[in-house]
Specification:
Blueprint: H1 2-7, H2 37-40, H3 42-47, H4 69-88, E1 94-97, E2 102-105, H5 111-114, H6 121-127, E3 141-146, E4 149-153, H7 159-176, H8 186-212, H9 220-224, H10 227-232, H11 238-253, H12 257-268, H13 273-276, H14 278-288, H15 291-315, H16 317-329, H17 337-345, H18 361-384, H19 391-405, H20 414-424, H21 428-440, H22 442-450, H23 459-485, H24 526-540
Antiparallel strand pairs: 1-2, 3-4
Helix pairs in contact: 4-8, 6-8, 7-8, 8-11, 11-12, 12-15, 14-15, 14-18, 14-19, 15-16, 17-23, 18-19, 19-20, 19-23, 20-21, 21-23, 22-23
Length: 541
């Protein structure tokens, strides 16, 4: 026994010749650089008391065989995705209707609003003529737009989203035609097929975001457990675009610009916002002299977008253009700042009262101009800040600026911000407050849609909560800008860690092109110079 113990003796920092009570593990690695929120974040420390409290000070971190942080986070995501499905379940209930007791969806008594379970997926199955087995962009129909006028309509979504609906419909019809499988209304099967695909897409979003978080991998738990997941992950198809965006940013972080461009380009063929991420990449690559990497990614993104869109555009040009036509002609969305102002002041809008089918051209121009101004301001900050901003900080600012100035902020668009916000500004209590506020906007929205005559809420109850949501987003933007100018307050920067999502930008010194004017170059301070020197020294080590 004594000989055995001596064989495994290990030196101790405080006492020479101390003996290990058991053989040492073969794997002696410890991820002691990983952030431990149970010890560093008061909110997490308090919540951890439910499962035994924070990890011990002398615990070896990073050697769990099964419940690794990634698996725990994905399991948490599955729990919240299940809650999201149950929140929509009342809207896929079936009931007998008519003399023959034919089964149909039970939306009686405005169930979709009273139960707050509304999802675009259900009505779109018939509205987009998917129930007829029609191919999107080829199938057209006439829609009454008022005043005795009709309009030719097509699938209203970008190509990948439209094809996703078509594939989901095909699976649902095949399921319905298989008698030995559990049966339901075809639209119910379709909803569940769509939800399964969106579940996989959101899990990809969480997985990629966790890898992008680096040493702060547990931050991704805020993405997995966001209240917005419960409310909106199955409201529309936006989880597809968040998966492409997160995957593209992860590819960029792994220094694979071609793959990054392809994924962001495909994301742009799903929803617009992944294309906006090329903007932050451009200004940061301009500041660091990495324009070649950006050009490769941008060309790959353009190629991927064209590869998906060109066949549909050439075969069905009118159907392909429907998404752009509809977004051009639609007015201010209920969630937009323009409608909020109209709601409280009675303002008729920039274009006044429009006739049926008339395009709000002034509103379109104003929203585009405001977003352009914001982008110029963000670009100025990115180029002139003493310390180069992190990629995720600029990505959040751009996407948030787009939503705040755009004439459309559909409720599920808030999902776009969740991964970017967590990676840009990992302050849990502030983020949880914003996410909760944003999720709760759904309640007055549903009762506003119900209508005052049907015991619903007046519009101002809804638009007032929109104002609170917008203010919360603006506050986060202001705090991110503050941290850009005070990088010592940025929780993500740690020791030699500069930008874990930056890829070729991480640890890169400033190398602006000579043609860039002086007023667009970093405003150097003594603190920034010393910080940059320390960063470069650590990078060389």
């Amino acid at each position: 026994m004594a000989e055995n113990a001596d064989a495994h003796a290990v030196p101790d920092a405080g006492e020479a010749g101390s003996v290990s009570p058991a053989p040492l593990a073969e794997d002696r690695r410890s991820a002691d650089w990983r952030d431990l929120p149970g010890r560093t974040d008061p909110l997490t420390a308090s919540l951890s008391s439910v499962i035994g409290g924070p990890v011990g000070r002398h615990a070896v971190v990073g050697r769990s065989r099964f419940f690794t942080p990634m698996r725990a986070i994905l399991l948490l995501a599955i729990v919240f995705l299940a809650l999201g499905w149950f929140s929509k379940a009342p809207c896929i209930q079936q009931a007998p209707f008519g003399e023959n007791g034919t089964l149909a969806l039970d939306w009686s008594g405005s169930r979709q609003y009273v139960a707050m379970c509304y999802s675009d997926t259900v009505p779109l199955y018939g509205a987009e003529r998917l129930n007829e087995g029609a191919f999107p962009y080829k199938k057209s129909w006439e829609e009454d737009i008022g005043n005795g006028l009709t309009q030719t309509r097509y699938m209203e979504y970008p190509v990948i989203t439209g094809l996703y609906q078509y594939v989901s419909m095909t699976v649902a019809k095949a399921w319905d035609a298989t008698p030995w499988l559990p049966q339901a209304l075809q639209v119910v099967i379709y909803f569940n097929v769509v939800a399964f695909g969106l579940t996989l897409a959101w899990l990809v979003t969480v997985w990629a975001s966790a890898l992008l978080a680096g040493r702060r991998i547990w931050d991704a738990a805020m993405i997995a457990a966001s209240p917005l997941v419960i409310v909106h992950v199955f409201t529309n198809f936006d989880a597809l675009s968040t998966a492409f965006a997160a995957g593209g940013l992860l590819a960029w972080a792994r220094k694979r610009p071609v793959l990054a461009g392809i994924l962001l380009g495909l994301g742009g063929a799903t929803k617009l916002y992944p294309l906006l991420l090329f903007g932050p990449l451009l200004v940061l690559c301009l500041r660091t002299g990495k324009i070649r990497d950006w050009s490769v990614a941008a060309l790959a993104g353009l190629g991927a977008w064209l590869t998906v869109n060109l066949p549909i555009a050439l075969l069905f040009p009118s159907g392909w253009a429907e998404f752009f036509r509809l977004n051009s002609e639609r007015g201010a969305d209920p969630d937009s700042i323009y409608n909020v102002i109209s709601s409280f002041t009675g303002w008729a809008g920039f274009d006044g009262v429009l006739s049926v089918g008339q395009t709000p051209s002034v509103l379109n121009a104003v929203s585009l101009l405001l977003f352009a101004v914001l982008c110029v301001g963000i670009g100025y900050i990115a180029l002139t800040a003493p310390t180069r901003p992190r990629l995720m900080q600029l990505c959040f600012l751009v996407v948030a600026g787009f939503l705040l100035t755009n004439k459309v902020w559909s409720p599920q668009f808030s999902l776009w911000l969740v991964p970017l916000a967590v990676l840009a500004f990992p302050h849990r209590r502030i983020l949880l407050a914003w996410m909760t506020i944003d999720a709760l906007v759904w309640v007055p929205r549903m009762f506003y849609y119900l209508g005052v005559s049907n015991k619903g809420l007046p519009e101002q109850w809804f638009t007032a909560t929109v104002v609170v949501r917008d203010v919360a987003v603006i506050v986060i933007c202001a705090l991110i800008i503050r941290q850009i100018y005070r990088p010592d307050e940025d929780l993500t920067r740690y020791g030699f860690i500069d930008d874990p999502s930056g890829g070729v930008l991480d640890q890169a010194p400033d190398a602006q092109p000579r043609w860039l004017p002086t007023w667009l170059r970093p405003r150097r301070t003594a603190g920034a110079d010393s910080a940059d020197s320390a960063s470069e020294t650590a990078g060389q080590r």
